[in-house]
Design a protein that fits this description.
The protein is of the alpha+beta class. The chain folds into two domains: 196 residues, no CATH class; 155 residues, Reverse transcriptase/Diguanylate cyclase domain (Alpha-Beta Plaits). The protein has 15 helices and five strands. Helix 5 runs parallel beside helix 8 and helix 8 runs antiparallel to helix 9. The longest helix is centred in the middle third of the chain and has 35 residues. The radius of gyration is 28 Å and the shape is elongated. One of its GO terms (biological process) is cell adhesion involved in single-species biofilm formation. This is GGDEF domain-containing protein.
Length: 368
């Protein structure tokens, strides 16, 4: 039953490739992966070019022109992977469609059916790409196309002089082209789900401490490090939260934590990094102009303390900031910088608590 549930979850997974791209970015692998995909596209572009040079390739002018167009177009895709940003999801779909259609035309245009059947192994490259960068439904569409194309090319061999050998080769190719990719994608989905879960607080859906450390390096880049940009750390601690648990129960306490997370989300930018570090302590990090830091912290504090029909709470908020440019130029590791910034924000938050709670204290690194 659990296995069936996993399969249903995998099939219905909307697939967020952002996690994988963030993983590549955090480890400086984005450029390497793009080069590898471009090389694979270059291999696919070599196929029609070689078929043109082969005596078994099409002899008619229309077929040869089509192969030439496919070769040029596929090398164009390779160039696209090497230049510009990571392709959008729509562009990625177009890349898959182009590649699948190009492979089918190449293997079908080969006058030697056995050589064409061997060329169907090219579907493995596209299957691998879809496995990692698209969801199961896209993979299913690719597999149906690869299956139909491979079988169509094999039919002349099956009805030929040695059908047993043709079927044997077809089965091997179908395993490689059709059976292996979904097994790989399901396994990758399980690993990805576990990895994501290890970075997320299960109660609120916000990042946990480990998740915070993984995301912060992605928050600051050269484009965001303009003169006025500040990397701001906001720590939030709910006032008298222990009394909520003691008097109303832990279930109510959990409801308050979830409500707090939702209220924080409602007043910060979508690009902000939000985390629950444990207990009733939350963190918000963002890159903002210096003149909006106080307003942002007060907006969060007021949202949390807004009236509630059940178990209202207030929050003490501490703020620390560092120029985004200084963060990038620092010789300290991101972990060391994050811990130092978090320590400053915590000290500010305790000042807010000592000042009577339900207030904001700010440390901008200037003795404030």
């Amino acid at each position: 039953m659990a296995g069936n549930l996993d399969l249903r979850e995998w099939w219905n997974d909307p697939f967020d490739r952002g996690w994988l791209l963030s993983f590549f970015e955090s480890r400086s692998l984005t450029g390497v992966v793009r080069v590898l995909i471009a090389l694979c596209a270059g291999v696919l572009g070599a196929v029609p070019a070689l078929v043109l040079l082969s005596p078994t390739g099409p002899t008619g002018l229309p077929g040869r022109i089509a192969l030439f167009v496919i070769a040029v177009g596929t090398y164009g895709w390779a160039a696209r992977w090497l230049a510009g940003d990571w392709p959008t999801q729509v562009t990625s779909f177009l890349f898959i469609i182009w590649s699948d259609v190009a492979i089918t035309f190449c293997i079908a245009s080969d006058t030697d059916a056995l050589a064409g059947l061997a060329g169907s192994t090219s579907f493995v490259l596209i299957g691998a790409y879809v496995t990692f960068f698209h969801g199961p439904k896209t993979l299913a569409c690719h597999l149906v196309w690869a299956f139909a194309s491979t079988v169509a090319v094999a039919i002349p061999l099956i009805i030929g002089a040695d059908p047993a050998l043709a079927v044997a080769k077809l089965l091997v190719l179908l395993v490689a082209n059709v059976a292996v990719p979904p097994l790989l994608q399901f396994s990758f989905w399980l690993i990805r789900s576990d990895a994501v879960d290890s970075l997320v607080d299960p109660l609120t859906g916000l990042l946990n401490r480990r998740g915070l450390h993984s995301r912060v390096p992605l928050l600051v880049d050269q484009d965001s490090a303009v003169d006025s940009a500040q990397l701001v750390m906001i720590t939030i601690d709910l006032d008298h939260f222990k009394e909520v648990n003691d008097t109303l129960g832990h279930a109510t306490g959990d409801e308050v934590l979830v409500r707090t997370a939702l209220r924080i989300k409602s007043v910060v930018r979508g690009s902000a990094v939000l985390a629950r570090l444990g207990g009733e302590e939350f963190v918000v990090m963002d890159v903002v102009p210096a003149d909006v830091i106080t307003e942002l912290a007060e907006r969060i504090q007021q949202a949390i303390g807004a009236p509630a029909t059940h178990a209202p709470v207030t929050a003490s908020v501490g703020v620390a900031a560092i120029p985004a440019r200084d963060w990038l130029l620092s010789v300290a590791s991101p972990t060391e910088q994050l811990d130092a910034l978090l320590d400053r924000a915590d000290h500010a938050m305790y000042r807010a608590k000592n000042s009577g709670r339900n207030t904001v204290a700010i440390d901008l690194g200037t003795g404030s």
